[in-house]
């Protein structure tokens, strides 16, 4: 029998050939979706600078910022199991008083006690304390876990005016979480690599659970009192990839600036020297890990890398007020790690930001300021459950760039994996296959079609409760490229002469000639409207509304003395918070052990499971259609023969 002039066998061959051709065409067309993605061509960012500070929650710094997701209409119980014991509402902390607590701090090595007051002058923020504070999402265990009411304190514009200025004029992320509910060492590992270990990495010790680092390892002091604590490491080298390694492989420029006396010594904040790649390639460490003292000169010599990290240590900028230059006083650390003062760290950060803003690199740079963990301070938002280890509590994060949206509060959900993803997507790099794989890339904070925002130069010499608090500065507008003078007599705004081609204007704040003690006026910032991103659809656990007992009122005065809870509860072990879970290794990028000699970066290949499923279904449909035609024709022929 013949169909369309062909025999049955010939027709089958023709249909098979047609099917193969259609499948080939479909695959070829799909390649456009599967091929390596490239950097966003609309991005004007050529440099990203990550400035990492220490130990503050979002609510501790920006809980009272107008328009941000801060909730201070709460009262947290001293003991969640005994509401009659009373509760504490948030209160304003004195910027000059060290934060004190009754529990030990996991970031304090024992020899920090010599010549300092650091022991007992910080809030606990270990894995165990984090989970006790979290209390299964009720967010009511902070005071009980810290054994102090000071965790309920907050700072505002009168204490950290430069940070609030940056939020006024650039982007404030109010839904940015630490990657893990843990102290400094694990969080810095996530900042560098998007993970803190898996079962396959061979890590053991009291600070490891199911293969992942959840606490700080044994520590010793640094070469200087203000250095970050050295890691007394007796574990295998960390054998997974970092973004720094990825940049070396792709032949992209990068620098890891560390403020310690020895920038290449491993500490709980300076984690790169612990990775196997850099131990096997010491030239990479020597080339890219530098003292923060070289940051300004690198910019002045037009050598700002594509990616920079700046980690705090004992180094202090030359503009720091003399009152803060006591290297024997832990409160003068630029890290902001309590008991270090927040104004010291803010002055240091503004110096770093100013170096970029006053250079030609400003036009193509994004600066991200973030904090490594919550530091024991209260935050009302229950972190999302990503996996067995995180996310952790919210931390403040600011994005500063000519291309940042102005006076914008970004409500999108971010974490430290988002820092990695921002760099990867901007420069067309593959993901590390860790948290970056599932994190948003922060691009919603930018607008590359707007007129570039001017620079905002801060004096960098603020001393809380001594310097006059600068009044809120005029907001940037689309109509004006240079800002008008502030109506406040305290700061004066002037335009600096340009040293670059076609720059955005620079706004500089000149402090009054005489800085004398003064009464700090109450700031009226609630009238400033903020542009905000849409609230995330993923809801967070509601904060319990708690009131003080009629018998006990622990609401502190504006400058409270330390309140220590008696009869502290014995902290549970990690296994009591989280039953053992077998966690498989996340898919990771296989990186060469040697840097690439190629001048072009590797490109990411991110096939989607959904896309692969749709492709398979499409192939089946294409293949089944001709077969269906054959069957239909055969059946029709049989019916015709019977007739």
Oligomer classification: single chain
- Classify the secondary structure makeup into a structural class: alpha/beta
Walk across the major sheet and give the strand order: 15-14-16-3-17-18-8-19-24
Mean pLDDT: 76
Q: In angstroms, what is the radius of gyration?
A: 28 Å
Head-to-tail CA distance between termini: 16 Å
Helix proportion: 10-25%
Q: Strand content of the residues, in percent?
A: 5-15%
Number of strands: 24
Taking pLDDT < 50 over at least 5 consecutive residues as the criterion, the unreliable ranges are 25-41, 109-120, 479-529, 535-593, 596-613
Largest sheet: 9 strands, mixed
Please count the helical segments. Answer: 14
Shape: globular
């Amino acid at each position: 029998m013949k169909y369309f002039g062909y025999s049955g066998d010939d027709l089958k061959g023709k249909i098979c050939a047609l099917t193969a051709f259609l499948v080939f065409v479909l695959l070829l067309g799909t390649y456009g979706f599967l091929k390596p993605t490239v950097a966003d061509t609309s991005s004007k960012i050529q440099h990203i600078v990550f400035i990492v500070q220490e130990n503050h929650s979002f609510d501790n710094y920006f809980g009272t910022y107008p328009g941000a997701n801060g909730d201070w209409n709460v009262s947290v119980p001293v003991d969640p199991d005994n509401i009659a014991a009373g509760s504490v509402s948030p209160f304003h902390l004195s910027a000059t008083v060290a934060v004190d607590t009754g529990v030990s701090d996991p970031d304090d090595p024992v020899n920090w006690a010599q010549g300092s007051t650091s022991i007992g002058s910080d809030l606990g923020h270990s894995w165990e304390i984090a989970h006790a504070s979290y209390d299964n999402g009720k967010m009511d265990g902070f005071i009980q876990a810290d054994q102090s009411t000071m965790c309920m304190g907050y700072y505002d514009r009168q204490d950290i005016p430069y940070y609030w200025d940056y939020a006024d004029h650039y982007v404030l992320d109010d839904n940015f979480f630490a990657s893990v509910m843990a102290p400094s060492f694990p969080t810095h590992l996530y900042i560098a690599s998007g993970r803190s270990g898996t079962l396959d990495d061979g890590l053991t010790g009291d600070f490891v659970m199911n293969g992942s680092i959840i606490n700080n390892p044994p520590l010793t002091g640094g070469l200087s009192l203000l250095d970050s604590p050295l890691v007394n490491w007796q574990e295998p080298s960390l054998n997974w990839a970092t973004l720094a390694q990825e940049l070396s492989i792709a032949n992209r420029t990068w620098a890891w600036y560390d403020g310690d006396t020895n920038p290449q010594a491993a500490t709980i904040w300076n984690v790169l020297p612990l990775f196997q790649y850099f131990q096997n390639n010491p030239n990479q460490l020597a080339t890219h890990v530098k003292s923060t003292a070289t940051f300004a000169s690198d910019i002045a010599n037009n050598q700002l890398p594509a990616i920079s990290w700046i980690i705090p240590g004992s180094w202090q900028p030359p503009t720091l007020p003399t009152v803060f230059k006591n290297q024997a006083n832990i409160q003068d650390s630029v890290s902001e790690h309590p008991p270090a003062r927040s104004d010291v760290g803010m002055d240091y950060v503004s110096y770093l930001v100013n170096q970029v803003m006053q250079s030609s690199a400003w036009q193509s740079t994004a600066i991200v300021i973030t904090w490594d963990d919550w530091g024991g301070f209260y935050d009302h938002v229950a972190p999302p459950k990503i996996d067995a280890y995180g996310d952790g509590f919210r931390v403040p994060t600011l994005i500063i760039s000519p291309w940042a949206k102005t006076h914008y509060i970004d409500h999108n959900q971010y974490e430290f994996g988002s820092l990695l993803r921002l760099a990867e997507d901007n420069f067309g790099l593959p993901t590390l296959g860790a948290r970056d794989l599932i994190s948003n890339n922060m691009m919603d904070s930018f607008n590359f079609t707007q007129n570039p925002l001017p620079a905002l130069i801060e004096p960098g010499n603020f001393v809380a409760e001594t310097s006059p608090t600068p009044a809120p500065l005029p907001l940037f507008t689309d109509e004006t490229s240079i800002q008008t003078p502030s109506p406040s007599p305290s700061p004066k705004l002037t335009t600096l002469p340009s040293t670059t081609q076609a720059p955005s204007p620079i706004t500089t704040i000149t402090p009054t000639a005489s800085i004398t003690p003064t009464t700090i006026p109450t700031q009226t910032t609630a009238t400033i409207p903020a542009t905000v991103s849409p609230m995330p659809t993923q809801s967070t656990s509601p904060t319990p509304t708690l009131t003080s007992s009629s018998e006990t009122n622990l609401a502190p005065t504006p400058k409270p003395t330390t309140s220590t809870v008696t009869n502290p509860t014995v902290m549970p072990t990690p296994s009591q918070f989280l039953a053992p879970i077998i966690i498989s290794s996340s898919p990771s990028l296989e990186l060469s052990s040697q840097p690439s000699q190629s001048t072009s970066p590797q490109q990411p290949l991110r096939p989607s499971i959904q896309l692969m499923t749709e492709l398979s279904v499409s192939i089946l449909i294409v293949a089944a259609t001709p077969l269906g035609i054959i069957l239909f024709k055969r059946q029709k022929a049989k019916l015709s023969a019977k007739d």
